[in-house]
Structures are given as C-alpha cells and as structure tokens.
Amino acid sequence: MQQESRILKEGFLVKRGHVVHNWKARWFVLQANELLYYKLEGGRRKDSCKKGKILLDGCTITCPCLEYEIRPLVIKLKTKTCTEYFLEACSREERDAWAADITEAIQALGPEQTCQKELPTKHSFKMPANINLNHIVDKMHDSSSGIKPVANMEQGSTYKDSFTGSSLVDWLVSWNFATTRFEAVTLASMLMEENFIKPIGVRSSEAIRNGDLAEQFLDDSTALYSFAESYKKKGSFKEEIQLNIVEMSGTIVKQGYLAKQGHKRKNWKVRRFILRADPAFLHYYDPTKDETRPVGGFSLRGCLISALEDNGVPYGVKGNVQGNLFKIITQKDIHYYIQASSKAERAEWIEAIKRLT
User: Is 101 exposed, middle or buried (0-12, 13-18, 19+ CB in 10 A)?
Assistant: First the structure.
C-alpha cells in the first residue's frame, strides 16, 4: 500500500457546504496528503459516495475557530488556493484530536506555502445566501405551474413519474430561480444533495459519482430524475419531542457521533448521542441543526443492550450496513439499531450504557 493511501484517522465530522451554507454529516478519512469525505448511504460508506477531498499540501488550520458562536467545536482549514472548509466535531476532545492529527499530516508535507487567491472559472457560481430550497420544491409540486412527472424510457426500461434533467433546468430558468443554465444545474445539484429529488436510471445515477458538484446533475433529455420520498408535503405529521427538565439535568458521561436507523423509513442518519447519568438517559441530536433540542431520547432504566454480529445484516436492520452495530431495547420494547465507527468505539458505548441500565 502506498504511503498516500494509508489511513491516519477516520470518523464523522459535520461539514459546512460551499454553495448553500448548510451543515451535513460526512465520514472523513485522513490520509498523508489529503482529507477525503464521504456521504453515508444505506448505513455504509462506499467509494462511489465520495463527495470530495481537501488537499493538505500548503493547507493552514485554525483551531479553535471562533467564526461561529453557536458552533464552538469547529475547525477551519484553508487550502493554498484560499478555499475554506469548516468542520465540526462532537466534543472538544474530538475536535482537538482531529486538529492535532491534521496538523501533523500538514507539517509532514513540508513548509507552508503562500496562500494564493483562487481565480474564478467560467463556471464559477455562488448561490445567493437567501436561497430557499423548500420554497423551490413547493413550487415544483404545484399542480398548475410545477414539474409534471411523466413516464420516460431509458435503455428499454420505463420509469413512471419521472422528469428529465433538461426539463428541470428549463423550469428553473423559466421561473427565474436561475439566470443561466449552469446556475440551474448547480441549483438542481443542491436539490439532489438535500434529497428533494433523486436520480433514476443509468445515466443520472452514474453522474452522482463525480465529486464535482457542477457535474452531478445532468442537463440532458436522456437523464431521468424523480421526486424523493423524503419530501414532506404541507400538513404532514411531525413528531413533537416533549422535553423533560429532569431528564436533561443528568451529568454527561459520554458523547459522540453515531449512525442510527430510523424507525419508519429505516434509513440511516448520523446523530450526536449524549449519555447522561443521574438520571440515566440517552438523547440524540441532529448535528446539522440547532443542537439545543434533541430529536429523540429514552430512559436507560430496564434497557437491554447488545452487540450485533458483523457477518451479514441482522434481522431488523435495513441497508448495506458498515458493521460495528449494537442494539438497545427499551422498557417499552422499542428497538434502536445504532452503528459505531469502529469495534472499539462500539465496545466503549456498550460498556458505558450497561453501567447505567
């Protein structure tokens, strides 16, 4: 194995987007000369899900980064072309560990290079700060003026309720959501990134493997797309989490990023888990949003916790999972399936939770 491909560190971090400045959980892999990041798909990190890379040669690091008051655990990386990356860890200890390992990798590559201004390309496009993707999707679903999904064929297969890439680009330009076709392609890529639309068929599915955002969506009459199932229409049911002051008052024993399987759609989401004692509760938060309110949690009293086998997909688990699974069964017989980033981390979580059950 070459030195450049040896993994120095890996795990979850939350990254700020370049175009739309939202925050997304990504799986990061630190190598000798670059930091790769992947999207978790179906509970597993695959090479086809690689979203990008940060070249470390000439990179500078800022830790702690004070540019986000409500996100004190952010690390900033600036490449030699002055591209800035903001990465958030789950705790100060984890933040400092990542910063130390990245700094060591940068220093091993040689002296710091002068920061050069990145020249704009003919395709450069910055998304307006006030863009509202939810508003665009609502407009796309409008019965009179929105996108009309129809049956399309590709390579002998019929795809119902689909639309072509070029028709979506036409629609975005016609409704002044973008002024050029390139801007519309970038905007459509963001709609796909946010899981409002999804690629279907061979051509569009192959395109998303490209790490360049501008080439993930195809402005083509043979590339097919459809609305994603995750789109929530107005009036849909939204679970309200009732917070109890007592259960949130316990001492924090352990915290970290873990992947959790949803109860309804069975999809996998990265969550920030916080384990509290006296009283013993396990809460989980959406790390891409305001973390002052958990999206779920439960008492550990009477819970059963166990590691799951890594050879194959256990019963009750959906998706091509990475492994390092464990299961928690609450007193109310609710089953939680959770993935750690390593066997060692899984063992640490199981041991910490067992002490409180």
Answer: middle
The CATH 2.30.29.30 portion of the chain extends over 3-108, 251-354
pLDDT in tens, 41-69: 654 555 545 678 999 999 999 988 878 76
What HEC string does the chain produce?
CCHHHCCCEEEEEEEECCCCCCEEEEEEEECCCEEEEEEEECCEEEEEEEEEEEECCCCEEECCCCCCCCCCCEEEEECCCCCEEEEECCCHHHHHHHHHHHHHHHHHCCCCCCCCCCCCCCCCCCCCCCCCHHHHHHHHCCCCCCCCCEEEEECCEEEEEEEEHHHHHHHHHHCCCCCCHHHHHHHHHHHHHCCCEEEECHHHHHHCCCCCHHHCCCCCCCCEEEECCCCCCCCCCCCCCCCCCCCCCCEEEEEEEEEEECCCCCCEEEEEEEEEECCCEEEEECCCCCCCCCCEEEECCCCEEEECCCCCCCCCCCCCCCCCEEEEECCCCCEEEEECCCHHHHHHHHHHHHCCC
Tens digits of residue pLDDT in 189-218: 888 877 789 898 888 888 776 555 556 788
Query: CATH assignment of 3-108?
Result: 2.30.29.30
Taking the complete model, does pTM exceed 0.85, yes or no? no
Q: In sequence order, what are the residues at sequence separation of 6 or more whose Cβ sits closer than 8 angstroms to the Cβ of residue 126?
A: 19
Q: Which CATH number fits domain 251-354: 1.10.510.10, 3.40.980.10, 3.10.620.30, 2.30.29.30?
A: 2.30.29.30
Q: What is the CATH number of domain 133-227?
A: 1.10.10.10
pLDDT tens column, 311-357: 656 666 766 566 788 999 999 999 999 988 888 899 999 999 999 98
Ramachandran area for residue 225 (φ above 0: left; ψ -120 to 50: alpha; else beta): beta
Tokens of residue 202, six digits: 């061979």
Work out the number of other CB atoms within 10 angstroms of the CB of residue 202: 14
Nearest to 23 by CA among 71, 69, 77, 62: 71
